[in-house]
Amino acid sequence: MIFPDAMLGMLGGGQLGRMFTLAAHSMGYRVTVLDPDPLSPAGAIADVHLKAAYQDREALQQLADTCIAITTEFENVPADSLNWLASHCTVRPGGDAVAVAQDRIREKAFFRACNLDVAPYAVIECDSDAAQAPANLFPGILKRARFGYDGKGQARVANADEARKAFKEMGAESCVLEQRIALKCEISAVVARGADGAGRSFPVSENRHRMGILDVSIVPARVAPELAKQAEDWALRIADKLNYCGVLAVEFFVTETGALMVNEMAPRPHNSGHYTIDACVTSQFEQQVRTLCGLPLGDTKLLSPVVMVNLLGEAWQQGAPQWDRVLNLPDAKLHLYGKHEAREGRKMGHYTVLDHSAEAALQKAMITRAALYPDWHD
Ligand code: ATP
Ligand code: MG
């Protein structure tokens, strides 16, 4: 076990790295963040901020020399950098698991190999793949295999011609074409798995998206308990088969007929798990510290129903948001990430509302959300 006040390394300085750093600090650890952005949210609070590229050999060497264990907060960190670091110190999760999550083609094949259901899809590597795509995949969604997030690198396509066009417009890079599923809702499971193979899931979250970006998470998810259990089991099975060490998030579709399909995974804590900070015995970020340091997993029990709402750059459209709308609620918690520029679609922060039921929390959270996003009408 790695005990405080050891120095831990974090590749990536975004909000996930920041919340990891906060959790690590409160347990007495120190953190070095690698991120080229001098204003990065995690760099701003880290003990050491290395401002260099993720492939910068000198910076990686310094991380390896000064940190006892290293983790990451985003899946597009070069797997090569993780593998190089792993030859010098403990790296969790490993580069191999991250590489699977970086590529939708490998990821979907992996889910299938785990015997889990996914939306029907085809791999599109060239124009003729798009031209000959099976008719049952339409209407569909073409997704770039790599470097997509928050709905970016995706196009809705009604037929093979549109798929060809979208494939070309997206740079003719490898894609998957997925059948568009009629959704009852979306849920996610954040799980943790220790180096000893012990696994534990946080309560499943019900997720609502707006413009391809997570908007609201509701916990407990309003689905049958058996379905929530199935999602937890599937996520733990994925972690097992990957021989994963760390925190892993798995997103699911619940179809109109009530069936579960795996959408994608993220080899890190997840936006839909932010509720754990305020509503669980252990947060997903403390769990990340625990798995990184070889400590036993913390209890994931939910202490209260909770709703999380994302604060995107749009909320700044008419100047600083009316924070009193959140702060006046005694059972709400505000989290801001310290980002300097509020751009549309940029995740600037979130808030949670706790109440005796998810419905009650949702009602309060949505009234506040309407005040914070005066231009949204939905
Ligand atoms: P993020 O990184 O924010 O999770 P992403 O860019 O990786 O997003 P996906 O999770 O694949 O993209 O898709 C974003 C959202 O688009 C999904 O949460 C879902 O709402 C919708 N979506 C994606 N694929 C499908 C599908 N096959 N059928 C129906 N809806 C879909
Ligand atoms: Mg997603």
Which descriptors would you attach to this protein?
378 residues, Rossmann fold, Dna Ligase, domain 1, D-amino Acid Aminotransferase, Chain A, domain 1, nine-stranded antiparallel sheet, five-stranded parallel sheet, 12 helices, binds magnesium ion
Brief digest:
The chain contains twelve helices and 18 strands. By secondary structure, it is of the alpha+beta class.
Query: What is the helix fraction of residues, given as a range?
Result: 25-40%
Would you identify the CATH architecture of the largest domain?
Answer: 2-Layer Sandwich
Estimated structural class: alpha+beta
What would you give as the CATH superfamily of the largest domain? ATP-grasp fold, B domain
Low-confidence stretches: none
Order of helices and strands: EHEEHEHEHHEHEEHEEEEEHEEHHEHEEH
Rg over alpha carbons: 20 Å
The count of helical stretches stands at 12
Indicate the CATH topology of the largest domain: D-amino Acid Aminotransferase, Chain A, domain 1
- How much beta, percentage-wise? 25-35%
The small-molecule ligands in this entry are: adenosine-5'-triphosphate, magnesium ion
Rounded average pLDDT: 97
Number of domains: 3
Task: Give the overall silhouette.
Answer: globular
Name of the top-level CATH class of the largest domain: Alpha Beta
- Please give the number of β-strands: 18
